[in-house]
Amino acid sequence: MRLILAEDSGLLRHMLVEMPTDRGFTVIGQAETKPELLHLVHADPPDVVILDIRLPSGQRDEGLQAADEIRRQYPGVGLLVLSHYGETAYAVRLLESAGSRAVGYLVKDRVPDIDYLANSIIRVAAGNVVIDPEVVARVMNRRRETELLGSLTPRERLVLSYMAEGNSSAAIARRLRCGSKTVERHATYIARKLGLPEAGEHGRSDVNPRVLAMLTYLRAGGGPSTVDVSVAAR
Q1: CA separation for the pair 210, 227 (Å, rounded)
Q2: How far is CA 51 from CA 10, 94, 142, in A?
């Protein structure tokens, strides 16, 4: 699998190069700035781009801007965005701009965990959505809930949290010690309660209801107005 890395920290970039290489990935390019990254992608689009949410010279959201441009021009390239903070607003923005496939958002504390990092890269490359458990936990632990989300049962919230982390129905079933059909029923009820289109609904077969459900939950738990500028679903 071919990767391009964009990270202004030399130490972290070195770690990212070494870890994927150990797992059989090939790093075909490294960048420190948004222009450098876009030049590399234009020259030779990779399977996945791993990029910091902040890149010089602005050091704010250049990574998200770059991710948006890459997705528009190269929709087949997976995007794995890294951040020092698990801010829900950035996750919402990334999912809204990049779409409901081949995108991930991880807190940098996950990088030293080579198994987690490698698995996230593979899942993003396969077209899945990966959201850091820290972001999911922030949403689940918020006291302020909308009436819509309050309609979910504790079991449905648990299923939703596992879905958001990128677990398949089979994986969720194993964690809950139930059948996959039971998990799918929970997913259907969640979509209905949140007023989302269900998989296979006429005219919306390309919609990922799991991602839509998580977006709804993230928005209710904290939207873009809560950004701290100092932050999987199949």
Answers
A1: 24
A2: 13, 12, 28
Q: Strands (DSSP E) along the chain, which ranges?
A: 2-6, 26-31, 48-52, 78-83, 103-107, 129-131
Range(s) within the chain of domains with CATH label 3.40.50.2300:
2-132
CB 51 within 8 A of CB 79: yes
CB 221 within 8 A of CB 93: no
Q: What is the amino acid identity at position 158?
A: L
Residue 208 in tokens:
């990922």
Closest CA to 132 of 213, 20, 233, 55: 233
- The CATH code of the domain at 2-132 is 3.40.50.2300
CA distance 76 to 48: 9
Region at 30 (left for phi over 0; alpha for psi -120 to 50; beta for the rest): beta
- CATH 1.10.10.10 for domain 137-226, yes or no, is yes
Q: pTM score, two decimals?
A: 0.65
pLDDT in 10s for each residue of the chain, 234 residues? 999 999 877 777 788 888 777 788 999 999 989 999 999 999 999 999 999 888 876 667 888 889 999 999 999 999 999 887 767 777 777 777 766 688 888 988 888 888 888 999 999 999 888 888 877 776 655 544 455 667 788 898 888 878 777 778 888 999 999 999 999 899 888 888 877 655 544 433 334 556 666 666 666 653 332 222 222 333
Question: Which residues 6+ apart lie within 8 Å of 151 measured at CB?
Answer: 193
